[in-house]
Design a protein that fits this description.
333 residues, alpha/beta, eight-stranded parallel sheet, 11 helices
Length: 333
């Protein structure tokens, strides 16, 4: 494990609840953190801009109170997602508020976070940056980030196309810092698998959309439950950047998911007035195939922990030596 010292001992599971546009809210983040995983939300979810300070006050106060009342409980830190792009005219304002409230982790997306890193480091905060390929990973390291989020094939939202087996291994050739892995992770066995291939933390979004605290329409949550991996459509039409979306929401918007035009990356348009990304066109990763219900965040984290421990036990059983041998080998399934 290459986790920063500030995260050691502060996690019940090696999991980050990914920031979900529109969906993540203070209640959800607080539930994730008090359940023992890193909770996060996009700064732009707090609208208008002054609402962000209210959210930060609510989250920091609730977590401080919970820590004081439960000194032996594992309570994780939280993170705020910053969109580093010319279309985000709130970036400086939002980063400054994170400095004021000393947000433990800032998650940055799209462009290298040159302006975010020094602010976060000024108060001891961490910066984890989204990347989809080696070029972007190297650029983020150059900017001084504290960890990389490898967004691989099958992830929800703005996902990459590389297999996690390929990208994690390639990045590990030149980077020994924290790696967070995103891409179709929705159960405890997948969390363990992420660690097995070289990641430190699993980065989970889709599984938490289908939770009681998520600020998503019930129809959206149910659509995830009802969908399989082949119901995910990868397209750049809705934001200018390729992303994964639920086929059923595209059909519901009156569009043909098998005949979608390409869009200009520079636009970052988020759709027309009639059809908007995230509001009408619902993001989802291929892990929707593993989502069968809509539990509370607390119940979900407890289940993930049970699955994670069970997966470790199965692996231990498979790698025990055969009777009468001195070498470790895999047993038959």
């Amino acid at each position: 494990m290459s986790l920063p010292d500030s995260l050691r001992g502060s996690l019940r599971l090696p999991v980050v609840g990914a920031p979900l546009f529109i969906i993540s809210n203070p209640v959800m983040v607080i539930e994730q953190c008090t359940a023992g995983i890193i909770g996060s939300f996009p700064a732009l979810n707090a609208r208008p801009a002054p609402v962000l300070e209210q959210w930060l006050q609510q989250i920091t106060s609730a977590l401080a109170q919970c820590r004081a009342a439960n000194p032996d409980r594992v309570i994780a830190p939280f993170a705020v997602n910053q969109i580093v792009h010319s279309s985000n005219d709130r970036l400086a304002h939002d980063v400054e508020l994170c400095r004021k409230y000393q947000v433990p982790i800032q998650i940055t997306s799209l462009r290298a976070p040159d302006e975010v890193v020094p602010v976060a480091h000024s108060y001891g905060g961490l910066v984890f940056h989204d990347v989809t390929n080696v070029k972007h990973a190297r650029r983020a390291i150059q900017a001084g980030v504290d960890g990389l989020i490898l967004v691989c094939a099958g992830a929800g939202g703005h996902a990459g196309t590389l297999s996690p087996f390929a990208l994690v291994s390639e990045v590990r050739e030149f980077y020994d810092g924290p790696i967070l892995l995103s891409g179709a992770i929705a159960n405890g066995a997948s969390i363990l698998a992420a660690q097995a291939i070289g990641a430190d933390l699993a980065y989970m979004g889709t599984r938490f959309i289908a939770s009681k605290e998520a600020n998503a329409p019930e129809a959206y949550k149910q659509a995830i439950v009802d969908s399989a991996a082949n119901d995910i459509v990868y397209t750049s039409l809705f934001t200018g950047i390729h992303g994964n979306y639920l086929r059923s929401s595209i059909v519901q918007a009156g569009l043909d998911p098998d005949n979608l035009a390409e869009s200009d990356k520079s636009r970052m348009n988020f759709g027309s007035n009639r059809v908007k990304a995230w509001r009408d066109i619902w993001g989802s990763g291929q892990s929707c195939a593993l989502v069968k219900d809509i539990p509370s965040v607390g119940a979900l984290v407890s289940r993930l922990e049970e699955e994670y421990r069970a997966a470790r036990e199965r692996l231990d059983q498979r790698t025990k030596p055969h009777d009468g041998t001195s070498e470790t080998s895999f047993t038959e399934p």
